[in-house]
Amino acid sequence: IIALLLWLSIRGIQKKSLSYSGALAAVVLGGIIFSHPSPVFGSLLLTFYLSSSKLTKFKCEIKKQLEENHLEGNHDRLGGQRNAVQVLSNGLTGMILCCLHWRWISQTVDGTAHSPKTNALIQAALFAYIGHFACCNGDTWASELGVLSRSNPILITTFQTVPKGTNGGVSAFGTAAAIVGGLCVGTAAAVTLYLETTFMSRPSSPIGILVLIGAAAGFGGSMIDSLLGATLQKSIFNKDKKQIVQDHRVLKAGESPESFKHISGLALLDNHQVNFASSLITATATGVFGYWLY
Predict the structure, then answer these.
(1) pLDDT of 73 strictly over 50
(2) What are the pLDDT digits (tens) for 123-156?
(3) Which of 203, 204, 139 shows the shortest CA–CA distance to 177?
(4) Which of 84, 127, 162, 275 is an S-S bond match for 166, by CB 3.0 to 4.6 Å?
(5) Which residue intervals of the chain are DSSP H helices?
(6) Which 8-state DSSP code applies to residue 263?
C-alpha cells in the first residue's frame, strides 16, 4: 500500500497534479485511509483522486482562458498544483470518518460495544464517507466540465446569467456532471462492498442504495457548494481579460480598479473553505440518513 501511495504521489508531481506539499499530505492521508481493513475506503479515495486529476487537465487551455486560478499551471511556492491545504480540504473529513468507522467496527469485533446503536453508527460512518467523496467528486466534475458548457451559467441565488467560472454559477451540463461524478463514487462503493469476502459494514439496506446515495450526494453537495460560493465567496470578473480572478486577489502593477467587476458574494471564504464546508455538510446529511435507515 505504501509503495502504491508513493508511486501515485510521485506520478502526481510528475503530471503536475500534486505539489510537493500536496504529495506529502496525500501519502499521510492515504496511508491512514488504506489502513482500514475494508477496501471500500481506499477505493473511493482512488476513484476521487484519479477521476478529478484527469478532469482537471481536460481541455485545460480553454479553462485557463476563463479562470485566472485554474489549477493547470497554478503552482504553489513548492511547485506543482494541488497543495496540502487543497488535499486536506477534500480529504480530512473522509479520513476522520474512516477512523471512526474502524473504531466502531473494532469495538464490535472485540465485544466491547456490540449493540444496535453501535451498528447504526457503523452504517452512518460508511454512508457519511460515501457522501463526502461523492460530494467532492461531483463538485469537481461540475466545476471542470460545467465551465466547458456552450452557454453561460446562472447564479444559484438570483438566477441571473453570470460569466463562466463564477462561484455559485450553475448550468444543466455542470449539474448533470455532478450527478454522474457522485454516481461513480456510489457505484465504486457498491461494487467494492459486493466483492468483499467479509461484509464489515453490515448494513441493513441493500448495497444498491449506495449508488443512489452517491448520485444524491453528488447533486446535493454541488448545490451546497454553489450556494456557499454565491454568498460567502467573492467573485470578481476581469473585464479586460474576460475571466474570473482568483480568491482574495490584489491589484497588480498597471491594473485599474475600473477593469474589475464584482459579480457576487462576500469575501468571507476561499475555495478551499467552501469545499471543506460543503463536503462536511453533505457527509453529515448522508450519515444521518444512514443512521436513520439502520
Answers:
(1) no
(2) 999 999 999 999 999 999 998 898 888 899 999 9
(3) 139
(4) 162
(5) 2-14, 20-34, 39-57, 60-66, 84-110, 116-146, 172-195, 209-232, 271-293
(6) E
Cα torsion for 147, 241, 73, 18, to the nearest 10°? -50
Q: How far apart are CA 127 and CA 97, in angstroms?
A: 10
Q: At what angle do helices 39-57 and 172-195 cross, to 10 degrees?
A: 150
Task: Give yes or no for a contact between 94 and 34, defined as CB atoms under 8 angstroms apart.
Answer: no
| Cα 178 from chain centre | 10
The tens digit of pLDDT for each residue in 79-91 reads 347 788 999 999 9
| 204-227 residue pLDDT tens | 456 789 999 999 999 999 999 999
Q: Grid coordinates in use for 105? A: 467496527
250 neighbors 218 (Cβ within 8 angstroms): no
Q: Contact, 72 vs 52, CB < 8 A?
A: no
Rg (CA), the chain: 20
Task: Please give the mean pLDDT across all residues of the chain.
Answer: 86
168: which residues sit within 8 A by CB, 6+ positions away?
Answer: 155, 156, 157, 162, 226, 227, 228, 229, 230, 231, 233, 235, 264, 265
Give, as one character, the DSSP assignment of residue 161.
B
- The larger pLDDT score, comparing residue 225 to residue 118, is at 225
Mean pLDDT, residues 234-246 taken together: 84
Confidence of residue 183 (pLDDT cuts 50, 70, 90): very high
